[in-house]
Design goal:
Number of strands: 0
Radius of gyration: 20 Å
Shape: elongated
Distance between the termini: 46 Å
Helix content: over 70%
Number of helices: 5
Strand content: under 5%
Structural class: mainly alpha
Low-confidence stretches: none
């Protein structure tokens, strides 16, 4: 869209924000997957015994893990500009950039982080839930 230029001074901070937020979201999602499979072991075993596939037996756990992974980013996005003034937006305003332009950049960053954490959580959870089962489709 041309919102940012592909120069190191812009790409390094933005890619760092994407990577760090995605790593936090994926870590929370993995931790939630692990605890949910432990806590809901009996329910998963019952679904498997009734003939459910791996995804059908795990879908509630996967969805909750994705929700857990994304919750910090969603919560911080709720308050951007109202309660908290992010560093990038404040820095641009102090540097003399038009406040409306600084706010547009911050909105872009917020949506970018929301999309990165959602994609990271979704992909990680859908790739990881199968690791809780063995080759015979039994819960480990």
């Amino acid at each position: 869209s041309g919102a940012i230029k592909f120069v190191p001074s812009q790409m390094i901070p933005i890619s760092g924000m994407i990577a760090s937020n995605s790593m936090v979201a994926i870590g929370l999602a993995y931790r939630s997957l692990n605890s949910q499979f432990h806590d809901q072991r009996q329910a998963v075993l019952e679904r498997l015994a009734l003939g459910a596939g791996l995804l059908d037996a795990s879908i509630a756990i996967v969805r909750e893990a994705i929700r857990t992974g994304m919750s910090p980013t969603i919560d911080s996005a709720k308050t951007v500009g109202l309660v908290s003034l992010p560093g990038m937006m404040s820095g641009l305003i102090f540097a003399g950039v038009d406040p409306v332009r600084a706010i547009r950049y911050q909105i872009m960053i917020t949506f970018m982080l929301l999309s990165a954490t959602s994609l990271g959580s979704i992909i990680a959870c859908y790739l990881a839930y199968r690791n809780f089962y063995n080759e015979q489709k039994q819960l480990k």
